Fold this sequence. Notes:
This protein is mainly α. The protein has 2 domains: 2-70, no CATH class; 72-157, no CATH class. The protein has 6 helices and 3 strands; from the N terminus they run H-H-E-E-E-H-H-H-H. The protein has helices at residues 2-12, 32-38, 72-89, 94-112, 118-137, 147-157; strands spanning 47-49, 52-58, 64-70. The chain is elongated, with a radius of gyration of 22 Å. It starts with a helix and ends with a helix.
Amino acid sequence: MRFQEALHGRLRSFDLELHSEKTRLIEFGRFAVQRRAERGLGKPVTSNFLGFTHICAGTREGKFLLMRRTMRERMRARLREVNASLRRRQHQPIPTQGGWLGAVVRGYFAYHAVPTNVQALQAFRTQVERHCQQSLRRRGQRDRTNWTRMRRLSRRWLPEP
Length: 161
């Protein structure tokens, strides 16, 4: 509580204020799991900040680990945008689409590539690959874009996390 009051005072000096519905004080950090277990509470709550879900976790040796995962809502929104763009670009040549998709995936990785987030990056790449295949299959009735060909195109154009 003292921290929250001090933060309010500090922000007031700059004519700023915290949004009451979006601001909360949570127990988080190195000893949060232990303290909550002593009180009979469950796991520490997660928080979303700057596009990541921050999670209290532990290493195999039992040390504290701050896990960061891409927020689900952000990933879904970006995938919807990519899918809509692929629909608009579906009749462009494959190298043009591949170059554009590679730039999109590289940009996404540039922001979201932090330790403990590789699963989310791989999921994003896989979904982009899936949307691309669906877009290529819609190009005509005789299209036979199978997964073997799609994997070959993905290796060429999409970076690995």
